[in-house]
Amino acid sequence: MKNSLGIMRSRAAIVDLTDGSVRYEDTPPEVVRSYLGGRGLNVAYLHRMLPPDVDPLSPANVLIIGTGALTGTGAPNSGRFNATTKSAETNRLGDANCGGFFAPKLRYSGIDRLIITGRARRPVLLRIEDGRVGIEDARSYWGMDIYEIDTALKRDMGASSEAITIGPAGENLVRFASIMTGVKNAAGRGGTGAVMGSKNLKAIVAAGGGGLDIADPDGLVELNEKLKHYLTDSTIVKVLGRVGTPLLYEVSNYLGTIRTRNSQDSQFEDTLNAEVIHEHVEKMIACHSCVVHCRHRNVYKGEGPEYTTVGLLGANLGISDTADVIRLNNLVNRLGLDCASTGGILSWAIELYQRGIIDDSITGGPIEFGDYDLAVRLINSVATRDGFGDILAESSQAADKLNDPERNYLTAIKGLPQSDPHDCRYIKAFALGIATASRGADHLRSRPTLEVFDLPSELLREIYGADVDRDPTSYLTKEIVVATHENIYSIVDSVGICKFICHGFNSPKLLKYEHFSQLLEKAFGASFSVDELKAIARRIVDLERAFINREGVRRPDDTLPRRYFEEPLPHGVAKGHRVEREKFFEMLDRYYRLRQWDEEGVVPEERVAELVAPWSGEEREAR
Amino acid sequence: MRRIYTNHLLCSGCRACSVACSVVHFGVADDARGAIQILRDPIAGFEYQALCRICEDPECVAACMAVALSIDRETGRVLFDRDRCIGCAMCVMVCPHHAIVPDRRAGKAIICDQCDGREVPACVTACSTGAIEFIEVEEEAGVKR
Fold first, then answer.
1. Tell me, what CATH number does B44's domain have?
2. What's the CA gap between A123 and A409, in Å, rounded?
3. Domain holding A522: CATH number?
4. The domain that contains A186 carries what CATH number?
5. What whole-number percentage of chain B has pLDDT above 90?
6. What is the pLDDT of residue B145?
7. What ipTM score was computed for the predicted complex, to two decimals?
8. Who's near A85: CB < 8 A, 6+ residues apart?
9. How many domains does chain A have?
10. How many CA atoms lie less than 13 Å away from B56 in the CB half-sphere?
């Protein structure tokens, strides 16, 4: 293997909170070449370090905070990290990608990846400075919400420090608590915040250091400028920069696919359209090095809302007042709750109540859709685990207590409530994508938005390297579509760049493998060919699958919410559409064959041996 | 003569400018070592670019005991002799624009040199919102008045 990582640094600090020890290591070059950084290296470490069947909230769980290979280089939108662990919400893979300003600061502070095990005896925080990790008392911060601790840490650790934190939800081990940074950015999915809380870890603060050495300074600045122009000339980047993700609400609503009142309905009010939301926005702001600036600073002392929040705390709870939905957005951010699971779990409970499956004896009183005050009460009680909130805080694991053991009314896969407010009964590639996503029902693993663009066949052939069916309702060739998107998204997550400028997510243009390759060359003199990056992509997808296979995931887990199979959509373009079970499972079989997994969706042993082989070089050296 | 002008209302707070500055001046990506600093507070709700405003009677020059700072009589710019800087940070403290950055590792000040030698300053090339511009002083005066 040609060793051409250049000056690319991949330094890990391994912290054991039980005994207070910190060990440092440079990730072996073979492993970096095989998994790159960010999400890829995180799963490489998690698969290696975590034995199967560990309780995610026990000290044995491993929480990995890993920056992307390009994070902090000034490459467009390169401010991201992944938080990877065994999920408190699903008991399988927990992996969440997050923007903001923390990840670059962590790298500038001399550490690229934090691997945290054990449990501190009392609340602590980690402080990283000049390549060293300190464990400090955090008792005085315990109990603070996200805004309060952000303010306190800036005061105590320096105005230029950046932190990731948990709020009351994480402290109280709510299974869908997020890790937050700033007042809005969240490593939201899978209960990463609960894992952090279970370790008595309130915050991780990056305070600065020697920065990140760049191989070709002028070349990198020049390339970044070129890419900036290329990206900001794009229509979708302009639109996202003007109104942000809520623009997708209108698209889903028009199609008749906006999840409404727990997916019982599929069209909702215009009051949540992007232009209406924009009347409540002060300014559009950005994450680190971002050329899009899709974040809203709203007029209610907060940031957001994103499309996911608008959909799941708005339409899906039947709440239509624009200001109310934005206030709910701010509330979940303050408490450190995942907006997607919060909306999905609350709406599930409300439908169960509506149907008489649960009653006042468990809810403590009537609960219904469209009630903002009720939503505020429930959300607060989830974060503090008071009363009925204590049951809801268990997420999909509350199924027995909620009298819905088969989860017939929960829109979730592999125990993870669906994040996309888009009902997946219409676009079949969306359905396959959320069914195969390694962390559960989640669109950010593969969302093939191009399905709704009506692109010409020739362009599709160029993108997918095969002839694919242009009809979004067709089941044919969608396995190719999903796998192609899964692959490139695993790379964009591993270089630490935002999906909004990734080829295929919202546009047939934007950044492709060759751009990532060029950036790695300019930044570090690291040579990763397009083919190598594609091989890394397949490795990451396979290793995540091998990880969840080890935790018991098989073909029956790669399915859809019952409603998607059984109930046709009632409105709009999508009216009458549902997912046909047989055709869905044929599509799934084709997907397995394409991935070269067996018919149960298991990664073959020989492949797993290949995936872990890069570590053996290290063992040889360590004897 | 062209100078760097900023507009905080257009600033998205992304700090690409600070990174580009540190990369071209030090070969290191580190937004804390950019001569342009983005002050931002998500709770108070502002983004603001701090960089040398080329004061008419710069307090930093008066405060510099090591005579590392001087005024270029022709352009009005503050010139910085890095070798003479003793890292006392007096200039950092007196600058009314928070525009001088202490480089604590090197024990030196960091102050904007308008990217002498580059056609367009690095911060300007990095800005994606038009919040930092490199324009003729006369033109800017015309716009403002």
1. 3.30.70.20
2. 38
3. 1.10.599.10
4. 3.60.9.10
5. 85
6. 35
7. 0.96
8. A46, A56, A61, A62, A63, A64, A94, A95, A190, A192, A195
9. 3
10. 0
Q: Is the dihedral of CA A448, A449, A454, A458 positive or negative?
A: negative
Cβ contact A293–B12 (<8 Å): yes
In a domain, A605, yes or no: yes
Structurally, chain B folds into a number of domains equal to: 1
Note down the domain range covering A204. 11-208
**Residue B28 to residue A211, Cβ atoms within 8 A:** yes
From B16's Cα to the closest Cα of chain A, the distance in A is 4
Range of the domain at B51: 2-139
Q: Which residues of B touch A289 (CB under 8 A)?
A: 14-16, 19
- Which site among B43, B48, B49 would you substitute to test the A interface, given the most A Cβ atoms closer than 10 Å to its Cβ? B43
Please name the member of A285, A287, A290 whose beta carbon is closest to the beta carbon of B47. A285
Q: What is the DSSP letter of A310?
A: I
B47–A293 C-beta distance less than 8 A: no
Judgement on whether residues A553 and A469 belong to the same structural domain of the protein = yes
pLDDT at B137: 82
Dist. CA A142–CA A162, nearest whole Å: 18
Report the alpha-carbon distance of residue A72 to residue A99 in Å, rounded.
11
Min Cα–Cα distance to chain B from A144, Å = 15
Angle at A106 between CA A103 and CA A111, to 5 degrees: 125
As a whole number of angstroms, the distance between CA A530 and CA A487 comes to: 12
> Are the beta carbons of A212 and B28 separated by less than 8 Å?
yes
Which chain B residue's Cα is nearest to A218? Answer: B24
In a domain, B145, yes or no: no
Tell me if A92 sits within 8 A of A548, measured CB to CB. yes
Contact residues on chain B for A293, CB-CB shorter than 8 A? 12, 14, 128-129
Q: Does the residue B108 lie in any domain?
A: yes
For residue B142, the model assigns a pLDDT of: 57
pLDDT beneath 70, residues of chain A: 1-3, 618-623
Domain final residue, candidates A208, A229, A259: A208
pLDDT at B141: 61
Instruction: Give me the residue from A72, A151, A287 closest to B43, CB to CB.
Output: A151
Clarify whether residues A155 and A253 are in a common domain. Answer: no
The partner residue sitting opposite B27, judged by closest CB among A74, A214, A283, is: A214
What burial letters (b/e) apply to A493-517, b meaning 16+ CB within 10 Å?
bbbbbbbbbbbbbbbbbbbbbebbb
pLDDT of residue B58: 95
Q: Over the range B37-54, which residues count as b (16 or more CB within 10 Å of their CB) and which as e? A: bbebebeebbbbbbbbbb
A169/A262 same-domain check: no
Q: How confident is the model at residue B75 (pLDDT cuts 50, 70, 90)?
A: confident
> Is residue A584 in a domain?
yes
Q: What is the pLDDT of residues B10-66, one digit of tens each?
A: 999 999 999 999 999 999 999 999 999 999 999 999 999 999 999 999 999 999 999
Q: What is the pLDDT of residue A622?
A: 44
